[in-house]
Amino acid sequence: MQVTGPDCQSSRSLFVDDDCRIFAAVGECARDPRRHAVGPRRASRHRAAHAAATVPIVKAVLSEGVPIVGTAPVTCPACGVEQDAQLVQSINTQKDPDHKTKLLAGELNVLACACGKRTQLAAEVLFHDPIADYFCRVVPGGDDAMAHAAELFRASGATGGQRLVPTLNALVEKVKLLDAGLEDWAIEMTKVLLLASLGNEIDRVLLFHAADPQAGVIQWVLFDEEGRKPELMSSSLAAYEKLVVRTNARPGARELRIDRAWAVEAVRQMISNAN
């Protein structure tokens, strides 16, 4: 897989800064994005535990109706002052597209304290794109919370695409892939193959940035081993397309967590079948 990697200090993508805010600028990215970006499930559990220690995890109701918006008492982790913060727990892209815009801009569910600290709230959020017939639910709290959310999906009778993710930042990547018309499972497998081509780098954070069909490339942002120094990379779009067409890895309807851990197993199975 061919890869290029120029510096990306002025490039744009979605990350979390040291104040836990999702930013649109790579140059302002994370002190430790491993807590927030898509990665192995053991990292997801760590991220969820970190977020839960900072702000309350608020449960969302699975609903296709009007967006659920309310307030929650939150204690600022910097100054200790308790205050009410607006909390959006249901995003319907047709009924309130502004919520999607805020999500992609890193402005959704952020406590902006008067002391200057900005904190991303850990709360369950249901994203629904009726046109794409797609649901994605943010579920902080670890594996037990994920299992419960999966049961709620099944009990709801919802159809179409369904995914579970641990953080808002993971939701941002899913939404970007949805908008780009790309299959998240093939993208996750492409990430694993790309990281493997770089050496023993499977645990490094690699995020989808954009696809350029005219140039035939997918653009990524790769962080170093310490979760710093983002670097813009590109790989062949054709490699992704081959995975979509030539593998039998497409997840079943009940496979809701399509992440790094899922992709590692899918790639292993693909290699095993080829041998």
Write up what this structure looks like.
The structure is a single chain. The chain is an alpha+beta fold and 275 residues long. It has one domain. The chain has a four-stranded antiparallel beta sheet with strand order 1-14-13-12. Strand 2 and strand 3 form a beta hairpin. Helix 5 crosses helix 6 and helix 5 crosses helix 7. The radius of gyration is 18 Å and the shape is globular. The two termini are 20 Å apart. The N terminus is likely disordered.
Number of strands: 14
- How many separate domains make up the residues? 1
Number of helices: 7
Biggest β-sheet: strands ordered side by side in the sheet: 1-14-13-12
Helices and strands, in order, run as EEEHEEEHEEEEHEHHEEEHH
Strand content: 15-25%
Briefly note the structural class of the backbone: alpha+beta
Summarize the structure.
The protein is α+β, with helices and mostly antiparallel strands and 275 residues long. The chain has one domain (3-274).
List the helices and strands and how they pair.
Elements: E1 3-4, E2 12-16, E3 22-25, H1 41-54, E4 69-75, E5 82-88, E6 90-92, H2 97-105, E7 110-112, E8 118-120, E9 125-129, E10 134-138, H3 143-156, E11 161-165, H4 168-180, H5 184-197, E12 206-212, E13 217-222, E14 231-236, H6 237-246, H7 260-274
Please name the defining characteristics of this protein.
single chain; 275 residues; alpha+beta; four-stranded antiparallel sheet; four-stranded mixed sheet; 7 helices; 14 strands; globular; disordered N terminus
